[in-house]
Each structure stands twice: as C-alpha cells, then as structure tokens.
C-alpha cells in the first residue's frame, strides 16, 4: 500500500468520525415571548449527522461572564459532537448589562422548549435532552435543569434528562459576594445578579439542589478560578449529603479557558467524558 493510501486508511480507522457529513441549520429564532414580552429575539444553531435518527441531544450555552459571547464561535463544538452521533443545539441568550439573570434564565428555558418540540425534525430524541454549557453558560444549564418554578408555571414537566456543567460559575453567588465584599472582585457581577441578596440565592443552583434532579456531570479544571473552585466544591459537598446523582470529573492542571478550548481536539478528555455520559443515558 502506498504511503498516502496508508495514511488515509489510518485516518479512517482512528478518526473516521471526522469524515461524517453534518447538517447545519443556522439562525433559527427560538424565543416566543411566552414567558416575558420583554425578551429580545434570539436564535440558535442546530448540528446533526446527515442521517440522524432519534439521537441524544445536547443543548449548549456558552460562557462569557454573562456579558459576552455568540453562538457562531462554537460551531466547532457542534460539528465535532455531531460527528460523534449527537444532535447539538447552540443558543444565543440575552446578555448583561442590558439584561439580567432573570431574562437569561427565561431565554434558556425557551431554548429547551424549542428543542423539546422541534428536535425530532433534526433527528434528535426529545426524551434525551441534556442541558450543558461552559462557565456562565453552565450556570444557565444548571438553572434550567434544577429550578422548576418556570416549568411548573407552564404546567410542563421539566424535559431535561441530564446536565453536563463545564467549569460552572454562579452556583453559589451569596457565598461568592460575601467572600469578595470590599475587594471589588464581585462588583462586576452586580449588573447580572443585581445587588439584591434574595436574587443571588434564587438564581444560585446550589439552593435548588434537593436530590431529585436528573443525573449531572460536572467537569472541573484543577487550576480553575478560585471562585469556581470553591463554589463547585460547596455544590458537590451538598450533592453528596443529599445522595444526589451528581458526579465530578477533575481535569488535571487545566485552567478555566482551556476547559472549553480542549474541545478543538477530538481526542480530549472532554469529548470522552461527554460522549460516555450521553451514551449511557436511559
């Protein structure tokens, strides 16, 4: 066999998923204002294998300190996961300072609702929706997974089957604001969470944790930001005390940003964890 042919054979054998055709549907409006007339128009992108049929679905919310980011940046994630037989939804959401955490949560709920009612058209299984995100986006994913007040107000059972939280921020904002008081470190987040301690608690997922949530996988960088390090540890301590179905995968020497940029490479630990977790959903 000639060298180029041998190389091609090796690529197909070891990384054949890179050759799978992926369908991309972009700029689909998902906000309906069903929850809030003030919600802005927001859109999402869908990535699916060409012949997808009843595959698990990952709904991804990006990070950016609740104030920046756009869905187009994460097309690489959607394409790579679609080649691994997942259907992926990547959604924009309102950002601060124009909008605050209340509107962000409502928008994230509407993204899940859109997915529930439309994803079969793209080959996804509406009974295997996994909410996910990185950093601030992981925080939003945790809220729509664990807080059921909006779902209850709609008379809809929460359709999220599981969650994958990649280095999540915001899981215990009262604690964070208390320990950073007077340092200026937490002040920049008031534009998202307001200066009302009741809002901090209401939108911190640690206070929604009750042991009845679906399976949750937390991906944590060993060298992440201290605020994330400590609040995730507090979250896991509470989860353990409740025997909640929450597990953590620790990434040795990984900092916060590399926890998402690792997904540029399909052989990363991140892909292994995500694929394994989703393949084992009931």
UniProtKB/TrEMBL annotation:
User: What span is annotated as the signal peptide, if there is one?
Assistant: 1-20
Q: Which InterPro entries match?
A: AB_hydrolase_fold, BD-FAE-like_dom, GDXG_lipolytic_enzyme
Q: Taking every annotated instance into account, which residue ranges of this chain make up the domain BD-FAE-like?
A: 46-223
Q: Name one Pfam family in it.
A: BD-FAE
| Any one Gene Ontology molecular-function term assigned to this protein's record | hydrolase activity
Keyword Oxidoreductase appears in the UniProt entry: no
Query: Keyword annotations for this protein?
Result: Hydrolase, Signal
Q: Which domain of life is it from?
A: Bacteria
**Name this polypeptide is given:** Alpha/beta hydrolase
Question: What is the native source organism of this protein?
Answer: Algoriphagus sediminis
């Amino acid at each position: 066999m000639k060298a180029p042919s041998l190389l091609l054979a090796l690529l197909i054998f070891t990384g054949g998923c890179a050759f799978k055709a992926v369908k991309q549907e972009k700029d689909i409006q998902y906000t309906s204002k069903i929850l809030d007339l003030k919600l802005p128009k927001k859109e999402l992108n869908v990535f699916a294998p060409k012949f997808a049929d009843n595959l698990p679905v990952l709904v991804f919310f990006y990070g950016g300190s609740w104030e920046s980011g756009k869905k187009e940046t994460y097309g690489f994630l959607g394409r790579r996961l679609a080649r691994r037989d997942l259907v992926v939804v990547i959604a924009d959401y309102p950002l601060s300072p124009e909008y605050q955490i209340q509107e962000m949560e409502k928008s994230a709920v509407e993204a899940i609702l859109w997915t529930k009612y439309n994803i079969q058209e793209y080959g996804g299984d509406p009974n295997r929706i996994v909410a996910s995100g990185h950093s601030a986006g992981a925080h939003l994913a945790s809220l729509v997974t664990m807080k059921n007040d909006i779902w209850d107000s709609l008379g809809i059972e929460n359709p999220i089957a599981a969650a994958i939280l990649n280095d999540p921020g915001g899981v215990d904002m009262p604690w964070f604001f208390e320990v950073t008081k007077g340092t200026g470190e937490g002040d920049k987040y008031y534009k998202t969470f307001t200066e009302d301690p009741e809002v901090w608690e209401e939108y911190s997922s640690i206070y929604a944790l009750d042991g009845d949530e679906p399976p949750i996988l937390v991906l944590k960088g060993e060298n992440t930001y201290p605020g994330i390090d400590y609040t995730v540890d507090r979250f896991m301590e509470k989860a353990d005390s409740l025997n909640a179905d929450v597990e953590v995968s620790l990434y040795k020497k990984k900092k916060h940003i590399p926890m998402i940029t690792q997904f540029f490479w399909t052989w990363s630990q991140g892909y292994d964890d995500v694929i394994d977790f989703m393949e084992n959903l009931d």
